[in-house]
Amino acid sequence: MKDFQLFEEAKWVIDTLENNNHKAYFVGGSVRDYLMGRALSDVDITTSALPDDVELLFGRTIPIGKEHGTIIVLGNNQQYEVTTFRKDGDYVDHRRPQSVQFVTDLYEDVARRDFTMNAIAMDTSYQLHDYFNGYQDIQSKIIRAVGTPLDRMEEDALRIMRGIRFQAQTNFDIDPETLSAMQQTAYGLSHIAIERVIVELKKFIQGRYVEKSIHTINRVSVFENLPFFNKINHRDMFVPLESNFEMWIASLCFIYQIDTTELQQLKISNEEKREIKAYIDIFNFFNQDTILKTELVQLIYKYGNIKVKNCISLIQQHERQISIQYDPFIMNLTIIDNIYDKLPIYNKSDLSVDGKILMQAFNRNGGPWLKVILNKVEHAVILNKVNNSKHEIIEWVREHVEI
Q1: Among the three residues 140, 160, 185, which one is the final residue of a domain in this structure?
Q2: Which residues bind Mg(2+) (predicted)?
Q3: Does 193 score more than 60 pLDDT?
Q4: Is 236 annotated as a binding residue?
């Protein structure tokens, strides 16, 4: 959705609040992205109305964070996060305010936000309410903390990661005073739940300007204060360009020989761990002295052409850091696609036989022998030793497998 269309569609929410004697504004990331000419995905609204008032005014709501002032207002095709003006009490653990106080003044609400570009409010006439010169900082391509930078970073150390992530996404410079505050408070990152940090790292590693942010990460000493990463005794840790989180972590495990049991420290999902281990397997495969085509076919069958090509591209782009020699005759994206396209099957379920068919064909009851036979059949089919035909597979098993 482009330009101001999302704002136009959300105006009814603000109109409803204003018609009932409440103040309301668009705020946060949607205003920032609108001013930067970036695509909008959602719209957030801040208001003087208390959460109970918001619930009374709108027919369909979800009290997603009512204790902190946030109510989801449901529209026909969209939902809107509506949050009461608030100011935060003292912070604990470098992350959470001890209390939240609802207020009636917009200034107090935006004064608690992290960076000036995120502290801009906008009314339905597209007039800005910009107390901290956030729009000027956007035009100057500066990431600057709201108010006193040291206070903002001491309150919530996750703001350090957010600032670095914004830099990777925008190519903006970080204001020197804000950068200094990040450096002085980086120790606070060790108090932040790693799950919250991972969310920022995933966005960071996919940023278009990661290379610029790498220098910031090293100057701030981010990794020294994060579990898993702090086990790597390397000042300039490898951070790839044009990657994803799982492949990045896999490359770190490969380069610095980190046991995959250490992944537990990241508290990521089992699916993400499987992805990381798959990428590690692919790196290890290409790190062999000799690679047979049959082995390459099995690798592509097991992990798919996309993962294999992603690893090859990363190796080619960072051959020195990953220390795997790029071989254009084997690590060739066109060859990988050709092998993948010619695979006779893409999953064991594609086989023309299953356990029931094999039991009938060989007049035997089920047992461990079935798994052994199916694995051998799968291997033979993907290497074109036998066609994926019920009759041919059964005959192949009679001739080549001892049952």
Answers
A1: 140
A2: 42, 44
A3: yes
A4: no
Is 165 annotated to bind a ligand? Reply is yes
233 falls within a domain: no
Same domain, residue pair 22 and 86 = yes
Q: Would 234 be classed as within a structural domain? A: no
Q: Give percent of the chain with pLDDT exceeding 70.
A: 96
**320 annotated as ligand-binding:** no
Q: Is 32 annotated as a binding residue?
A: yes
Do 5 and 135 sit in the same domain of this protein? yes
The reply to whether 69 sits in an annotated binding site is no
Structure tokens at 72: 């989801």
User: How many residues are listed for the chain in this entry?
Assistant: 403
Is 59 part of any domain?
Answer: yes
pLDDT in tens, 252-268: 999 999 999 999 999 99
Asked if 201 and 295 sit in the same domain, the reply is no
Decide which of 140, 165, 190 is a domain's last residue.
140
Average pLDDT score over the chain:
93
The CATH code of the domain that includes 357 is 1.10.246.80
Residue 60 marked in a binding site: no
Q: How buried is residue 213: exposed, middle or buried, by Cβ count under 10 Å (0-12/13-18/19+)?
A: buried
Hey, what amino acid is at 249? I
> Which range marks the domain in which residue 392 is found?
349-400
Q: Is residue 232 part of a domain?
A: no
Residues 121 and 152 in one domain: no
Question: What strands, in cross-sheet order, belong to the sheet with 44-47?
Answer: 61-65, 70-74, 79-84, 44-47, 24-27, 121-122, 128-129
Has residue 117 got a pLDDT over 70? yes
Task: Report whether 3 belongs to an annotated binding site.
Answer: no
